[in-house]
Amino acid sequence: MTKNSKKLTSLDQIGEFGLINLLSKNVRLKNASSIMGIGDDSAIIDNSDLQTLVSTDMLVEGIHFDLSYFPLKHLGYKSIVSSISDIYSMNAICNQVTVSIAVSNRFKLESIEEFYLGINLACKNYGVDLIGGDTTSSNKGLVISITAIGSAKKEKIVKRSGAKINDLIVTTGFLGNAYLGLQVLEREKQVFLVNPKSNPDLSKYKELIERQLKPEARNDIISFFHENSIIPTAMIDISDGLSSEIIHICNSSKVGCQLFEDKMKFSDLFKETCEEFKLEPTTIALSGGEDYELLFTINQNDYKKIKDDNKFNVIGHITENKDLFLNLKNKTKTKISSLGWKSF
Ligand code: ADP
Ligand code: MG
User: How much is the pLDDT for 2?
Assistant: First the structure.
């Protein structure tokens, strides 16, 4: 697992409790709401008059990640980011996480420590406390389960179901970069399998690969909403691709939408790489997953609050007619169908 020839420690040598002690050694609770963390039968959270939000994700080796090109530290970081993104997408703050792992004896202690370096870095960057978890063995591979816990005032929580007719549909950042990063990594893996001596220069694709290996969650957008007194009418994080996320919002809200292809923004590197892979940028933005950007709807009266900020991209509006349309650049329109990222 690690490149140097230093002697590695097998997990049996240290045992389950030894491992938990080691992994929790440097954990310090920072949030006032974290009353009790690792070390008892249960953690304790005090959210006083706020509502509590809970979201769980499970990640399985070979299904959700491939360790042949995914460094364990990045995997730890991304596991936390993808979980807390589900709390932010409710317009809430994330304060705590629990991390549970099942590991096979193929993994050495040093590898698990690498994984936790990523976990701890993400917790630090996002101001989240690690307050517990579970540790067990697996017959094969690594399984990770993360539970993210957040809080918000009841009237600020944003669901998928609140989009209203004529609301604007807005996305943050660039979409599709994580999917293209994955294509680059998969291609290099194939090259490496044929020629293990290959040492490719991937620096050209940095922005795309980084989005795949070390994505960030948009808590900055949640802060922006609070500072500018914006409460979106509906919101979701874009983990599965724009098309399946807009379908979720429209179905939950019992409305339709008109999206406009010419309003979608792509970076130059994204466009060049799409050309190189013979992929169509709009299709990738619609169906590529794992960008962890936000998709939300707002009342038109709030447009003035976001229009001068290039983090935001208004791509369409909500309609009474329940059909979902994408208006293409060639002046034709197409119905949006779910091309989302499927684990199964
Ligand atoms: P129990 O037998 O009550 O489930 P454990 O021995 O599994 O207790 O866990 C002891 C403490 O360590 C608990 O506070 C638990 O939340 C925490 N813990 C266990 N595994 C992990 C882990 N992988 N990451 C963080 N905390 C953990
Ligand atoms: Mg346990």
Answer: 46
Q: What does pTM read for this prediction?
A: 0.93
Ligand 1 probe mutation, 14, 17, 21, 24, most atoms within 8 A of CB: 24
Q: Are 110 and 242 in contact (CB under 8 A)?
A: no
Judge contact between 174 and 306, C-beta under 8 A: no
**CA separation for the pair 247, 253 (Å, rounded):** 10
Radius of gyration of the chain (CA): 21
Which residues are near ligand 1 (CB < 6 Å)? 20, 23-24, 38-41, 99-101, 130, 132-135
Site to probe by mutation for ligand 1, drawn from 16, 20, 35 as the one with most ligand atoms within 8 Å of Cβ, is 20
| Residues whose CB falls within 8 Å of the CB of residue 149, separated by 6 or more in sequence, listed in order | 45, 52, 53, 54, 87, 94, 95, 96, 97, 98, 131
pLDDT tens track for 253-309: 999 999 999 999 999 999 999 999 999 999 999 999 999 999 999 999 999 999 999
What is the identity of the amino acid at 178? Answer: A
CA 153 to chain centre: 23
pLDDT in tens, 215-257: 999 999 999 999 999 999 999 999 999 999 999 999 999 999 9
SS3 string of 310-337?
CCEEEEEEEECCCCEEEECCCCCEEECC
